[in-house]
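Incident review: delayed structure delivery

Summary: a single-chain prediction request sat in the queue longer than the usual turnaround. Root cause was a stuck worker, restarted by the on-call engineer. No data loss occurred. The affected request and its eventual output are reproduced below so the record is complete for anyone auditing the incident later.

Affected input:
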Amino acid sequence: MLIDRGLLHTLALRLADREIDARGYLEQMAQLITRWVGCSRAGLWTFVDTDDGPALHCVAMADAGVPHRSGELPTDILSADHPQYFATLLAEGCVVADDARHHPASASFAAEYLVPQDVHSLLDVCHSVNGELFGVVTCEQLGAPCTWSARQLQTVRQLVSRAGLTLREASLAMGVAYRRPREGRAWNDTDWG
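Output delivered after worker restart:
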């Protein structure tokens, strides 16, 4: 499905006009991602520093068709616990794992997250602001594996290109201690057709 730029703009204006707060904006964005990409679940993550080193911190997650997520957000993803995931994500700007439980970049999540949550496929894409990596949009397929299409990947890249600044500002408004990765691929309009 194509991204509705008007809806993105309206949502950003509602945040700027304080009709919704940062949490509401991020949750609505995650819900829109599930619709636009056609995935079971979407999450918004920010690079942070922890006592154990660099990590990704979840600021919002939505299940397709569910207005408000029940339960807590996932715990931080620590680079020390998942070095292959971080290496792939930073080198390629994305992790496209049709079979996430066996993909080299995401297999380390199998026992603690993928199997208990019934996640079979992942499509995780870095986003940047002004050329600096800030976070990751995650798309998950539950119940059965799927083959991610080039169009789905392009949809996520287009979304983060259009909404990256507002995603960053909303995350920061929630008190997330952003950490800029030392290296990594920042996606912008020139990276997708």
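Verification: The chain is about 35% helix and 25% strand.
Action items: add queue-age alerting; document worker restart procedure.
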